[in-house]
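Handout, section B. The chain below has 332 residues.
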Amino acid sequence: MTPIGRIHHITAIASAPDRNLAFYEGALGLRMIKQTVNFDDPGVHHLYYGDETGSPGTILTFFPYVGARAGRHGTGQAEEIAFAIPSGALGFWQERLAGLSLAVEGPSERFGERLISFKDHDGLMLELVEDEAAAGLPGWAAEGVPAEHAIRGFRGITLWVEDPAGTARVLTEVLGYEPGPIEGTRQRFVHPGEGLGRIVDLRATRGFWSGSMGAGVVHHVAFRAADDATQAAATAVLTPHGIRVTPQQDRNYFRSTYFREPGGVLFEIATDDPGFAIDEPVEALGSRLMLPPRYERHRAAIEANLPRLRPERTYNWSIAWGSERYWASAWA
């Protein structure tokens, strides 16, 4: 196992949680692996999607604030979340997304890879990239998405930064990335070895406006640490760069430290352990609200305050188009 550096998870801000669930589970076929709350704001859901077990490198998470205003894409933000799909799966996804009346750009080519681009209902920028290695990874079969075409996890992420130099130093000197090719204003950085989440692209956005937080914007990008000692070693390397790192936070499913890299993007270093099966079995992941021990005594009040995601355990997805033409659920 590479001790540090590849993407562990990406967290974004969303609006209505039911629409978020409908899009990522219903339209993209990801598995909901955990429904819990924002540990710092338990009045808000924290929804996790990924592969069957929530493996590091597959985990996309959301803080869905009901009625949240739209964020603004801009400098100092992580943008363009790239998912890995098997070679040859692009046609399937073009047809599927077109059938959902989603505006799709491409296919196009970047650094020799074919991809399509689109946005979710909140405006979050997404990409599907054909990855030759993806076919060797297990796919989660969902309604309408056979395992052979399924999203495998993250190919990478693009960071929009005014001056890439400081961000590049953190990627190479702390997180173990190596500088790669350049196309226009974009430089690719690649983590050595194999597996998901090995790509970070730096896009120089000099003179562009600054981004602002809100629905449809990435909140932070988390990178993997094999264990606490590896996480602490990364913190020790960051300090001479003049970067302040938070104390370790226990997030139940991993332990985290946070810092803002020189380009302004919030980074996290998250441990691989203990994973998402510590409080519910793998076959039942995401089926009910899970709370950290400190909130368990407040469960009744928290559940009463949160929007309901699934009135029934058993459900079917259908296309129920309204004026905004978004995925809706038809409960069995």
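Note. The radius of gyration is 19 Å. Compare this with the example in section A.
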